[in-house]
Amino acid sequence: MTPEQVNLVQQSFTKVAPISEQAAVLFYDRLFEVAPSVKAMFPADMTEQRKKLMGTLAVVVNGLGDLGSVLPAASALAKRHVSYGAKPEHYPVVGGTLLWTLEKGLGEAWTPEIADAWTAAYGTLSGYMISEAYGSAQAAE
To answer: Are 34 and 113 in contact, with CB atoms under 8 Å apart?
Structure first.
């Protein structure tokens, strides 16, 4: 990621943070719509899960300028996700859902540059997480 992309992700996230509760609802509603099979991996009461999602996003977004600071936590998260039943093929679905949610949340502020920056951020992190959880051969697929 370029420094400009990091800046775009961080600036755009400050506009999503105030509506984090609604954004998390949008995210999971959309995820369960496009990938209904993953719903079984989640609790019936999603309140805490939604908070975890937005908290984790905030930590990652704030750490993008010093990626090494968030990689240990990303590695641990990736390995925990394996125990929940997550598979490498879930990562692109989650990424698409995240981008869709951000587009809805940002409205007219969602630009091609911001979309590219978020795509780069998610691609970097998800590739790392997949390689940590499943090995580097899976991350290349």
So the answer is: no
Domains in the chain with CATH codes: 3-140 (1.10.490.10)
The pLDDT tens digits for 44-96 are 999 999 999 999 999 999 999 998 999 999 999 999 999 999 999 999 999 99
One-letter identity of residue 96: G
Which residue has 């506009």 as its token pair?
A: 15
List pLDDT tens digits, range 89-119: 999 999 999 999 999 999 999 999 999 999 9
Identity at 76, one-letter amino acid code = A
- The pair of three-digit structure tokens given for residue 97, joined into one six-digit string: 């859902």
104: exposed, middle or buried (Cβ count in 10 Å: 0-12, 13-18, 19+): middle
User: Closest by alpha carbon to 81, among 24, 119, 41?
Assistant: 41
Alpha helices in the chain (DSSP H): 3-16, 20-34, 47-63, 71-84, 90-106, 112-134, 136-140
Measured CA to CA, the distance from residue 132 to residue 46 in angstroms comes to 26
